Amino acid sequence: MAYLIHLAILFVIYAILGISLNLVVGYTGLLSVTHAAFFGIGAYIVAILGMQFGLNFFVGLLLGVVVAGIISFLIGFVLSRLGGDYYVLGTVGFNYIVWSVLLNWQEVTRGPLGIPGISRPKLFGLDFTSNLAFLFLAVIILGAIYVFSQSIVTSSFGRVLKAIREDERAINVFGYNTLYYKLTIFMIAAAMAAIAGSLFASYITFISPATFMVMESVFILAIVILGGFANLKGSLLGALFLIFLPEALRFVGFTEDIAAQMRQAVYGLLLVVLMLYRPQGLLGEYKL
Amino acid sequence: MAVLQTNKLEKHFDGVYAIDGLSIEVPKAAITSIIGPNGSGKTTLINVLSGMLDIDGGSIVLDGIRLSRFKSHEIPMYGLTRTFQEVRLFNQMTVLDNILVVLTERNVFSALFERHSNLHFMRTEELLKKINLWEKRNELAGNLSYGQRKLIEIARALAMEAQIYLLDEPFAGLFPEMLKVVVDIVKELKTRGKTVVLIEHNMDLIRELSDYVFVMDSGKLLADGKPNEVLNKREVIEAYLGE
Fold first, then answer.
1. Residue A128: how many other CB atoms lie within 10 Å
2. All structural domains of chain B
3. For residue A37, is it within any domain?
4. B199/chain A closest Cα distance in angstroms
5. Do B51 and A175 touch (CB under 8 A)?
6. Quick one: which of A11, B16, B95, B174 has the most CB atoms within 10 Å?
7. Pairwise CB contact (< 8 Å): B88 & A157
8. pLDDT, tens digit, 9 for 90 and up, residues B205-222
């Protein structure tokens, strides 16, 4: 049961990452491979503020949201000058920059040693130290993010995002300054990724730069692709599938070591098969 | 009275002039056709007028406002909208959403909290019924036939409630019954006091609809005037028909 709770918490964290990235990739058509950077920014801010200044988790979470929002605004502005393949490369570059800062700014981040002993959240006498209580908190946050994201995609704003994805030049002619729309959704998604990062740091209680490399961004992108572009339920399904897949592999007789290695191969295989036979993902409504 | 003017307008691509010192005056509340052989710069002109391409020289005067540099998203502020030669719908969105998207809020933060209103929906219904595609409202635009997509693009332009409509080959590839729908729309726009600029190759339609015609060749103005005068000019026949 404890292990199931552990997996459920990981599922919730990655579902937040999948939903938020889907807003950018699936709904707006911006193929971003930098989500792990914002995930990392949220995680490190909670960890550093908690460990060095004794600040409450929720204060760290809010600051993480603000910092991720500001950085994503600046990065989004630079990226807006790039199109197509160059945009993708730009996002990869940004993920490397953030990872490099986390690795080398040792006075603040402790570099490759990482930050251990991060505390669990407490709020008004409520203690989320136990995994079950933490899961409860995480699910509430996921629920709020899901409802907020659903309201975005069903609003007039969401309809414009889809139009940008379909033909940005055309929607421009109808009076929409698409730069503002792209920046706004990029900032919202980055802020959500920072929330996931805060939860991750506080749950695992140890973070290091290795968790926030480009491969992690690719993993989050795989959640979106597998579950389906422009479908929020798809991101839940994608996260569920990719978090529980290694466990399924163990149940069919693979040892833990092999299951972990097989996981990467199976992710790769799944993506190739999906691109061939169902390019919009399992529940997706949009083809790249 | 001219509602749209170009003054010595220039647009070039790598030194090749697509528009070369073009000065025209489009009359208000009338149907003006721009004709010319392929490559004469007609679509480039529409792209420049709608802000999709920057101007390299000269200026545009829209309803008395002189513009030398402007962005395409600012164009509706000047009461101008357009359709495209190659249909550019939002293919993986429904027909309904293709119209609704141009009816709703432009401001980012207001749009975040806005749902389309009954008024938006009723206007969309009215437009889709006008082009006989209300039954297709929930289908993806990309799944419809070329002619149907062309009609939706015209309905989308009508939804903008503009003063000036730039229609780039709106009749091309349409079946007769669809063509009649578009002809009626263009005529109705004129009776409502709107200005229509047509790029068209069908000479019968140009004669039937146009109040004024500009003929372009190699980015320059070759001739202009009433349709029957212009279409009978020897230089126009030579340039346009290669005779």
1. 20
2. 1-79+162-243 (3.40.50.300), 91-161 (no CATH)
3. yes
4. 18
5. no
6. B95
7. no
8. 999 999 999 999 888 988
